[in-house]
Amino acid sequence: MALTVELALQLLQIGMVVAIAPLIMGITRKVRARLLRRRGPPLVQPYLDLWKLMHKEVVVAPNASWVYRRAPYVVFAATWVAAGLVPTYATGLLFSWSADLIAVIALLGTARFALALAGMDVGTAFGGLGSSREMMIASLAEPAMLLISFAVALIAGTTQLSAIAALFSTGDVGVRVSLGLALLALIVVGIAENARIPIDNPATHLELTMVHEAMILEYSGRHLAMIEAAAQLKLVLYFSLVACLFAPFGMAVGGDQSALALGIGIVTFLGKLAVFAVLLPIAETTVAKMRVFRYPAFVGSAFAAAALAVFLRFVSRGF
Amino acid sequence: MPEVAIGLWCIAGFLGTGVLAVVLGGRAIATPLVYGTTLVIALAALLLALDVLLGGRPATATVLPIGLPGLGAHFRLDSLSAFFMLVVNFGAAASSLYAIGYGRHEHAPMRVLPFFGPFLAGMNLVLLAADGFSFLLSWEFMSLASWTLVVSHHQVAANIRAGFTYLAMASFGTLCLLLALGLLAAAGGEFTFERMRTATVSESVAATATLLALIGAGSKAGLVPLHVWLPLAHPAAPSHVSALLSGVMTKVGIYGFIRIVFDVVGDFSPWAGLVVVVAGGATAALGVLYAVMQRDLKRLLAYSTVENIGIVFIGLGLALAFRANGQGPAAALALTAALFHVFNHSVFKSLLFFGAGAVLSATGERDMEKLGGLVHRMPQTAVVFLIGCMSIAALPPLNGFVSEWMTFQAILLSPQLPQWGLKFAVPAVGAMLALAAALAGACFVKAFGVVFLSRPRSSAAATAVEVDGFSLTAMLLLAWVCVLAGTLPGFVIDALSPVARELTWSALPAQAGLPWLSIVPIAESRSSYNGLVIFFFLVVSGVMTAVVVHRLASRSTRTSPIWDCGYPLDSPVTQYTSSSFAMPIRRVFGTVLFAVHETVDMPRPGEMRAARFRMRVRDPAWRFLYGPLVRWIMRSAQRLNRLQFLTIRRYLALVFAALIVLMLVVAIWR
């Protein structure tokens, strides 16, 4: 019986992230449009887009291989599993121990690997360009992300996200220099990994500046829907990572599975996501897109900040 | 019969296959017969190693009345030797199976067959040797046997040069090991490891011996900057031998380091760990940066070996540092992570070299700029090569990730080390390891994407055919091991626990009995990972999504020409190639470190000549270390050359002066 409840709670989290991901994307698009003095699409537009794409016919190039056809599902599955294992409304869920922070980062790496291969499959100039640049950005962003996880893990004494969230939500850890640096780095990495301005422009097409869009240029129909859904899930994943590491209040901790605690957990989680979804486009509209070879400085700053945070922790427990 | 004797019989069998090959001469039957025999012997040795390791058998030793008079040759099989015997003979078995098919393409089989068995014998001998003399002798035997295989395609001038570089580096490495073992033997007064282990040495002698062992064994394993021979020699050999050189012989180098430093020298100072950790971190980061920039598939794989050796040495260095500080469980974790990576790397690097060999025999090309689209022509090779790429790029749920994850966990334990130098170095090494992991992803996206995906870049690639069944079986077997070791890592960790207990006097908690088959290296509250659950989730969510979308939404597919933003270009030249894929990374990381220099010569509008692009990448090891060294040696040799043309009076004066100096030295020494 207890196992059934635990399983249901875990499945609720896995289902919830995939259900709300398009909505979160809708909020960011709406806010961005309003800031640019446009009316913007309705909040549910991403759902409608996904629905439309899924019912369309897929157009595949004659020389596309099975890698091209399977990759969208692999990307979606890997991102979904990673997102479903980041604590959202409660800690200590049934499968929370199966992947720690490092494994979640690596799962995103699996998704990226599949997508970059798919970009190269048909053999177009744009696909190769996108894959090549994506891997360049990743080669800076992924180590930064790992260093962030080091910094957090050194404070919490564990790499388990659930345990970290439970510890941080008690407030005993307090405000720390290294945590501040890690947060800064995480935001930069999140921007780079989610292909947002100033690294990449999710609204762009037919431009030489694009990265993510260039990789998926040939995709259509249900394949494109899967990739879009994965991108939305990834945004939710990064939002819930920030929420779980740096704003873990309201979560149901310590195995508290009363309806009230869970309800508060879900409501505060959704609230946090909504706040982040508003803040992201505000930050985005204040900066301009960078040139490609300025990225290393930008993402490298995240690497440096995270490395500094780790160093501080190695030097003294006080930071 | 004691286990060590069975091991020696296996070695004799390997040597026998060399004789068999000579007797059979160039007959067609020779190839399958020789490789079939080595396959059977390797399987026997593999079973022996598994039996010793999993059965928890005590070490067995024997002395053979060969070698130096009065000394004899000592051999011993303990759990450390057994683990490395497992790695070596698993690789040897896979390689023999692969070669039954691949070896048919060899145009001069008599340059490979007689040396293949002795090479395997040499590697096994190193693992069993238990005194300094037989260890060094086996080490040299292994080096020479592998050298004959490296120069087997001697018509190519580059291969001869590779062979020469290898020979020079191997001699240098053995010289260092000779000095290290000499120092240790002098303290105990005997050549056996048994005696060296119990003898007490001063800290300076221990430190010198450790450093010499790091250089000597590191040059065989491929530590930067001693790695220069490796990317030349490994690709020069036939592919099944490349797999052995890269996947297995580098591991014997690691064995030599562990045997001398962990076992024979023992603890003396935590600073030894610092040196090893830093060397490992630099090797990991530099190795993968080299790899990303290569356009020759086999050379890319060889450089990636350098990276993985770096990862192993990070683990070993951490284990040394933890052990010297008396932190047994942490040392066991770091050592287990390193050994797990040794195993993993031997599996997926063999797999990848087999794949490269399959591509080579199907197309005759190693240059990635001339490959492409092989996923259509060689579908099965493509699948297994992809699994190898994903494993080496440390992607869950495959095996490469598990050992890297454990190394990260060991790094996260290092704040408990008391030394300040380590406190500063370890996070920097952690950052380098993180960088190496991410760049390995880019490297193998490039390798698979350029070779197997996209459109064929040459007619050879467009007309390739799938390789034979033996080669495919060998690759499939290795791919399965990658998946199994990634999803059920607990069993591998448990198998390694006798080795960890022998070297660090502590071991990780038993993993096989844990619920859901998770792995928990320290405590559940600290970290855990479950490859099986992740694998299950990935498969279920992926398949479920695909089924739901196909059933409830649309399943119609239309084939239509490439879109490419409305400007599709027919020529495959318009695709990204290996060099263009690596360009952003080259520009970010390479301009300073590798002195990358690109010149673009673009004709003006109306000019009819072709555009030109030239790129120069300089290896810092050659530029700053070997280049000056070689120039200095050449100059000194030229000067010393004058000694040949002296008059008799001058020779007499020289002899007299030498005598005086010698006597003075002796007088002062006393």
UniProtKB/TrEMBL annotation, chain A:
Lineage: Bacteria, Pseudomonadati, Pseudomonadota, Alphaproteobacteria, Hyphomicrobiales
Membrane association type: Multi-pass membrane protein
Domain of life from the UniProt record: Bacteria
Native source species: Rhodoplanes roseus
Record carries keyword Transmembrane: yes
Localization (cell): Membrane
One Pfam assignment: NADHdh
Residues passing through the membrane, by range: 7-28, 73-95, 101-123, 144-167, 173-192, 235-253, 259-283, 295-315
Keywords: Lyase, Membrane, Transmembrane, Transmembrane helix
CC terms in the record's Gene Ontology section: plasma membrane
GO molecular function: lyase activity
InterPro entries attached to this UniProt entry: ComplexI_Subunit1, NADH_UbQ_OxRdtase_su1/FPO
Name by which UniProt lists this protein: Formate hydrogenlyase
Automatic annotation (TrEMBL), chain B:
Keyword Oxidoreductase applies: yes
Keyword Nucleotide-binding belongs to the record: no
Annotated InterPro entries: ComplexI-like_HydComp, NADH_UbQ_OxRdtase, ND/Mrp_TM
GO terms of biological process kind: ATP synthesis coupled electron transport
Protein name in the entry: Hydrogenase 4 subunit B
Matching PANTHER family: FORMATE HYDROGENLYASE SUBUNIT 3-RELATED (PTHR42682:SF3), HYDROGENASE-4 COMPONENT F (PTHR42682)
Species per Swiss-Prot/TrEMBL record: Rhodoplanes roseus
UniProt cross-references to Pfam families, sorted A to Z: Proton_antipo_M (PF00361)
Membrane-spanning segments: 6-26, 33-54, 80-100, 112-130, 164-185, 205-229, 268-293, 300-322, 342-362, 383-402, 422-453, 474-493, 529-549, 651-669
